[in-house]
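Subgroup meeting minutes
Present: P.N., E.W., G.H.
Scribe: E.W.

1. P.N. recapped why we're keeping a running log of single-chain structure predictions: easier to compare across weeks, and new members can see raw inputs and outputs side by side.
2. G.H. added today's entry (335 aa).
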Amino acid sequence: MRRPLYCLAIILLAAVDTSAHHSRAYFYDSSRVIEAEGVITRTLWRNPHTRFWMRDDDGAEWALESTPPATLIRHGLGPEALAEGTRVRVAGPAARFEANAMEVHNVLLPDGRELLIQTVARPRWMQDTPILQPSEFAEADIAAAEASADGLFRVWSRQYGQSFSLVPDGEFPLTQAAEAGREAYDPIADNPIPGCTAKGMPMIMSNPLPFEFVDAGNEIYLRIEEYDLVRIIHMDPDVAVASPSILGHSVGRWEDDDLVVTTTQINFMHYGSAIPLSADVHILERFALSDDERRLDYTLTVTDPETFIEPLTARRHWVWMPGETVKAWSCLETP
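Output recorded in log:
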């Protein structure tokens, strides 16, 4: 069964992440929600963010930003809803540094449908707006996923409504030097992932999109939808150490049914956008499969004496949604 493309409203469960492509709190003022109405003149339906432009009735041009298409599509919303020539009313936090710009939370279409396209959005014009659940998968896709699943070797997804940030168990145990670096961080000049620049380890493990474990014998491939990345986990402990890279050199082992991975040789010097890491960072990951094989718990331990006064531990989890796949990222810099 497939769910219809549209319903009266769509609430997208895209949690806020401090390591996003740019700091939403820095660029948009959540305390100042504004509205505008006009005709869409252009849409850029590409990751990392959906962007569209609108001309209002006074002839002013508006620059509007929203949730990534990868998330919109999974909730049943296609580019047709924001097609060029469509008249819309939009509302959302105003841009701090640019006139006629906002992060769109609500879209009112000509036929009266209201789209809620951020997790914090609430009905603004249609108070009885129902919530559309994530799209369902075709029966054949579900059957194929169930037949091919083998332990943790399957596609894993963020549970809807779950934050995807790697939140530490307590406060960040920063050294004085790291704290000074965080305070001096400039979200524009120092952003490590502008546009289509890929995240590295460990930041990539806080992304909101699906990934897949693939068994390749002496190696395990971790195929990540965001940025079309592939992490290689070597299961031979004597494999030659790779040169530094954004994903580092990963060596795995089994502890009962848990996959434990050690990663070094990372030259992506960021835990989150404002928290630096050194070239000596050491990462330990544990992927623990639930008894019913429908949930994968993740524990991350980061050791870096230049950044943390003690090892930092963070946790999250993913769930198995039979029928979900890892899709092409198709990122495009905004021209």
